Please model this.
Amino acid sequence: MSENKEFSFSEKYKLLLSLEGRKTDIINMQSVFIILSMANLINLSCQKELGKYDMQENRLVILLKLYKEKKSLQVSDFSKLLDISSATATSLCKRLERDGLITKVRSESDNRQVYTTLTKEGISFVESIAFSHKDWIVNLLDGVNKDELSQFFTLAKKISVELNSNIENISKKE
Model:
């Protein structure tokens, strides 16, 4: 990665930074916006990479979970895992079923319960792309040296603790 490139904020962040009025600690705002921008760039890169396989991250996570557990799981397990609604989890599973990667079976004892299992094609798919996707993730930051990554990791953990503390404080006020 070239060190002479300057970071540029998106228009929505520039708007917030340009607001006049209250005295604001600009470096705090810029730091938050950089973190948000990095997360967005990683998500966009991931979407492009998985798009090569006609795959989407949440669907891949469902496949990986089924592969790891080596048993049938309920659709509700995926909504909890991904922190999404049951309707969204159902939609993701329908797409995976349509693609021939999973099968869905209703419980004989409770018709409301739907269990999913990887098909042979699903197992092959996971085995063919899981490791290459993992390697792709590892290589995302190849242009950053190990010392810089170590410093970033330490700082990111500290920021994460601060963010969790802020969330807890907001919850207490409600």
Summary: The CA atoms of residues 45 and 95 lie 22 Å apart. The chain has a mean pLDDT of 88. The chain is about 65% helix and 5% strand. The radius of gyration is 21 Å.
